[in-house]
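Hello again,

I reread your note about wanting to compare the complex against the isolated chains. To keep things tidy I'm splitting this into two emails, and this first one only covers the full assembly. Below are the input lines as submitted, including protein chains and any nucleic acid or small-molecule components. They are followed by the predicted structure of everything together. The single-chain runs will come separately.
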Amino acid sequence: MAMQKPLIGIVMGSNSDAERLKGAFEVLKELEVPFEVTIASAHRTPKDVANYAKKAKDRGIKVIIAAAGLSAALPGVLAAHTTLPVIGIPLEVGPLKGMDALLAMAQMPPGIPVATVGIGQAINAALLAVQILSLQDPSCSKKTAQYREKASKKVSTARDALTELP
Ligand code: RP5
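Full-complex prediction:
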C-alpha cells in the first residue's frame, strides 16, 4: 500500500489533531485504500492550504478530508481552491467542544459545499470518502459492503451473547 498513489488526501489543521483522526487512518488502512496525511492551517499557513488544494487533482487525489478544531475554516478554504469533493471533520477542541468547528464547516456559502460529518466522526469521513471512490472503483464498493457486514455481525454477536438483561 505504501507504494500505491494516494487517492484520499487528509489535511489536518495542526499536529495536535492527529490523535483525533486515528479512527480514519485505521479504517483506510483496514480497507487498503491508499491515502496521505499532511498538516496545513487555513489561518497559520494559508498559502500551503491553497497550494495543496490546487495541486491535489493533478496528483491523483480524488477526495480530500479536512479536519480542524476551533473556528475551522480549513475544509472551506480547501473547497474554494478545488473542484474535488471535500469532507470536513469538525474536531472537539476548545471551550465550545467542536460546535464552533461544526457550524463553520456545515454552514458554507452556496456554491462551495463541504460534506460535513458530525463532531469527531473521523471514521464516517473515511467511509464516506471510500463510498465516493466507489463511484469509479467497484472494489471500494465491495470494501464498504464488507465493512458493514462486519459491523452488523458485531451487533448480532453481542445480541446472541446476551443471556439476561444487563
Ligand atoms: C486548529 O486549531 C487546529 O485544527 C486545532 O484543532 C486547533 C488548535 O491547534 P494547536 O494550537 O493545537 O496547533 O487550527
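For quick reference: Residues 13-14, 16-17, 41, 68-70, 91, 93 surround 5-O-phosphono-beta-D-ribofuranose (CB under 6 Å).

B.
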